[in-house]
Design a protein that fits this description.
two-stranded antiparallel sheet, about 475 residues, mainly alpha
Length: about 475
């Protein structure tokens, strides 16, 4: 699976990526699940669901990159499934030959230096931009995970981003980035297999339409996917190469664009290193190198083109507004001050732009005038002060401090909620807790600014917070996986 050369700049033209998936991962899941009944939903005790559960048990033992080199399955995983997974790991675990550990290291330092801001950009830019493409939103909507279990999807995304971007996540045996990405790759293949009820075939029109099936009253996420139905000729394959490449853009390019818009832009070397690291992730995730970008200009062109193509393909009902609304509501609940609860929505409008904000159906949800005025005054004043102070104090930033306050509340109250810990190995969870603690003070800020930040977050070391469990999903809606 190694590519012999790094993807070339400007190689953005594709040949029907919406009808291309991931042959390695798709074949792996097809070998595990076997023939699928086309016109009925398997019963609750069917072997298909049991074999998916066996894969999940195997995932629990994929703890770090070293484990991938010589993985031995637990006794609870059937021998035939274990053999298939071992074949998959041998073929998929290696980084591409063009992966540069030095540039990956630069990207890791960017994440560690701006990790709290990356949380804001994940919530207020990357995830909302994911919804802009209707076909991608439809797949998310099909699972019910973002309309009724928003936090589950957010936390699942963080469960990949943190392991990838922490020190050694991709390059060291003790890192966990490769292990987590390989899990996500098989999850994508499982989604495709369940929606299509067969292994995907390349090329438009070869699969035809997959008719929806009657669902049980309270379906699991897997049952919801298998019963959803899909128009392949119109929509391409679910989780296809184009959609995977677009999602990769939101983690790399959209993050860097957000830093620029906040006036905290990185150097050209840092930006290219960050894009390179996410290209390496894309390779491990099974994304074709022709769909990767090397520069911010390429990222801008590719993102805008994909969004325009996707929006021209909008088929009712539009899944984007309920997903975006659920995300905004989740963020608002994490903000402790009533007047500031609309700030995440206003930050999303600022980072994604007015046009994309409208595409998400959020323009009709106006913030109270006082909240609107306070947000723009604070952001405008911070940007002005930073511009002036930057002439004398290059690392001073009020904007960064404001984003750290917002990021703290989103990070500890949603991503690091102790009542529902991320589904990660215990060692990795401990490493994430240590990383959170290391972000407690901004080393680039003067002491007085850190003390103000303490009053708006917490005094002393940042730690995951415990809070009551949220109310269950509405009756009859699919639970999170």
């Amino acid at each position: 699976m190694n590519s012999m050369s790094e993807p070339q700049a400007g190689s953005l033209k594709t040949d029907g990526p919406q009808w291309r998936a991931d042959p390695l991962a798709d074949e792996t899941i097809a070998r595990i699940l076997g023939p699928w009944p086309q016109n009925e939903l398997p019963g609750a005790q069917a072997q298909q669901w049991q074999r998916i559960a066996a894969v999940n048990r195997a995932f629990a033992t994929w703890t770090d990159n070293a484990t991938m080199a010589d993985w031995q399955p637990p006794a609870s995983v059937p021998a035939d499934i274990a053999e298939v997974l071992q074949d998959y790991l041998r073929a998929a675990r290696e980084l591409p030959a063009w992966a540069d550990p030095v540039r990956i290291g630069v990207a890791e330092r960017v994440f560690m230096d701006y990790g709290v801001l990356s949380c804001v950009l994940l919530f207020c830019a990357s995830l909302p931009e994911c919804y802009i493409v209707p076909d991608l939103a439809s797949v998310l909507y099909a699972t019910g995970q973002l309309e009724y279990n928003t936090e589950h999807r957010i936390r699942s995304t963080a469960a990949m981003i943190f392991p990838v971007m922490m020190h050694g996540g991709l390059t060291r045996p003790e890192g966990s980035g490769v292990a987590q990405v390989l899990k996500v790759r098989l999850i994508h293949a499982t989604i495709r297999y369940l929606i299509l009820r067969s292994e995907p075939e390349p090329g438009p029109g070869q699969l035809g339409n997959v008719a929806p099936l009657e669902r049980p009253e309270k379906p699991t996420v897997y049952q919801a996917l298998a019963a959803f139905g899909w128009n392949t000729e119109r929509d391409g394959l679910p989780c296809n190469q184009s959609e995977l490449a677009y999602t990769l853009l939101t983690f790399g390019y959209v993050f860097l664009r957000g830093m620029r818009r906040l006036g905290i832009g990185l150097s050209s070397t840092q930006e290219k290193a960050y894009l390179h690291a996410w290209n390496v992730v894309g390779h491990v995730l099974g994304i074709d190198s022709s769909l990767m970008i090397q520069t911010m200009d390429q990222g801008k062109e590719m993102l805008e083109r994909m969004q325009a193509e996707g929006q021209a393909h909008l088929i009712p009902p539009d899944a984007r507004p309920p997903l975006a609304t659920a995300l905004m509501s989740t963020m608002e609940q994490a903000i402790p001050w009533r007047i500031a609860k609309p700030f995440p929505r206003l930050m999303t409008r600022f980072l994604c732009g007015r046009a994309n904000f409208a595409q998400l159906g959020l323009n009709d949800q106006h913030a109270p005038p006082l909240s609107w005025l306070l947000f723009w005054l604070m952001l405008g004043a911070a940007r002005l002060i930073d511009a002036i102070a930057g002439c004398f104090l290059p690392h001073f930033s009020i904007t960064r401090a404001l984003m750290r306050v917002l990021g703290y509340h989103l990070l500890v109250k949603i991503l690091m909620d102790q009542t529902r810990p991320l589904q990660l190995p215990q060692g990795l969870l401990s490493q994430m807790t240590q990383t959170l603690a290391s972000w407690s003070d901004d080393p680039r800020a003067p002491r007085w600014l850190n003390r103000i930040e303490d009053r708006l977050t917490t005094t002393g070391t940042w730690r995951p917070l415990s809070r009551p469990r949220p109310a269950p999903a509405p009756e009859g809606k699919p639970p999170a996986a």
